[in-house]
Amino acid sequence: MPFFTEPDHYEKTILSDLQGAWQVLRAEVVDHAGFPNWERVLFHTDEAMSWETVRRLERMEPLLLLIRNLAVQGDAPTEVLQLIEDIAEILQEVQHDLKQGKPL
């Protein structure tokens, strides 16, 4: 019986960019913990990064809007707000690629 071997190369996709952007946002929220609503922003960020949401990308946009609103209402640091906008741009690109039938 052959053993499973780890692949020696990986193809970078737009979904890996999206995943990376969520991870960077999560770390930034933790680094700036203490602003109003930060715990809720963190909770919903984790939800947006979950396998269930990634499998149904249409759920991600409403979560992103909720996260943006909580961050704005909580007067989150500029770095957090900018990362949210970066995610919005990548998510738009993902949605465009899906409409075009491009593989993710």
UniProtKB/TrEMBL annotation:
> Which domain of life does this protein belong to?
Bacteria
What this protein is called in its record is Flagellar protein FliT
Q: Which organism is it from?
A: Candidatus Competibacter phosphatis
